[in-house]
């Protein structure tokens, strides 16, 4: 009897079972049962987007274009740094937020990507000396302060894993 897994999409193929023999000819062989799942045709229906919907990224992007909106976002980021991350001491995240910058803005200054900045802030990225130099220039700190901030981030990341 072949079992199949029902899917949310009619276009998904059911699972298939097959047997394969492993071993060289003439040598002792073993039979292994494998179940193969075919998910490549499975699609999740997209949720309906409300009319006149804007994502947070779109709104922030629009506000960044306006001097008054940009100033408000910078002030908000500074508030977040002090209110939510103040007890952590100086980390790359708090230093960036105190400047009022988004991760995207820091990534632009560093000539890298926003996900790379996110990994730096999580303390999971092993940085090159050139990246450290760019980062210290962008944040307006010396390399010793950056080193301490990175060590603090690593400690915070390790504590969260426990």
At a glance:
The chain is mainly alpha-helical. It is 51% helix and 9% strand.
User: What is the mean pLDDT?
Assistant: 81
Radius of gyration: 25 Å
Question: What's the count of strands?
Answer: 2
Please identify, by name, the CATH architecture of the largest domain.
Orthogonal Bundle
CATH class assignment of the largest domain = Mainly Alpha
The CATH topology name of the largest domain reads 434 Repressor (Amino-terminal Domain)
- Largest sheet composition: 2 strands, antiparallel
Task: List unreliable stretches of 5+ residues.
Answer: 1-10
Full CATH superfamily name of the largest domain: lambda repressor-like DNA-binding domains
DSSP strand content: 5-15%
C-alpha termini separation: 45 Å
| Shape, per Cα inertia axes | extended
- Class from secondary-structure proportions: mainly alpha
Chain-wise SSE layout:
Blueprint: E1 16-22, E2 30-36, H1 56-65, H2 67-84, H3 92-99, H4 103-110, H5 114-122, H6 129-139, H7 143-161
Antiparallel strand pairs: 1-2
């Amino acid at each position: 009897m072949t079992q199949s897994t029902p899917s949310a999409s009619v276009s998904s193929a059911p699972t298939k079972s097959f047997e394969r023999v492993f071993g060289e000819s003439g040598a002792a062989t073993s039979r292994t049962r494998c179940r193969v799942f075919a998910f490549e045709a499975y699609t999740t229906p997209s949720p309906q987007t409300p009319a006149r919907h804007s994502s947070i990224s779109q709104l922030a992007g629009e506000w960044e274009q306006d001097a008054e909106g940009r100033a408000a976002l910078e002030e908000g980021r500074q508030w977040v740094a002090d209110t939510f991350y103040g007890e952590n001491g100086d980390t790359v995240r708090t230093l960036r937020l105190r400047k009022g910058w988004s991760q995207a803005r820091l990534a632009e200054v560093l000539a890298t990507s926003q996900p790379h900045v996110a990994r730096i802030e999580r303390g999971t990225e092993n940085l090159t000396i050139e990246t450290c130099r760019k980062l210290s220039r962008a944040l307006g700190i010396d390399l010793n302060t950056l080193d301490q901030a990175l060590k603090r981030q690593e400690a915070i990341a390790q504590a969260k894993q426990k």
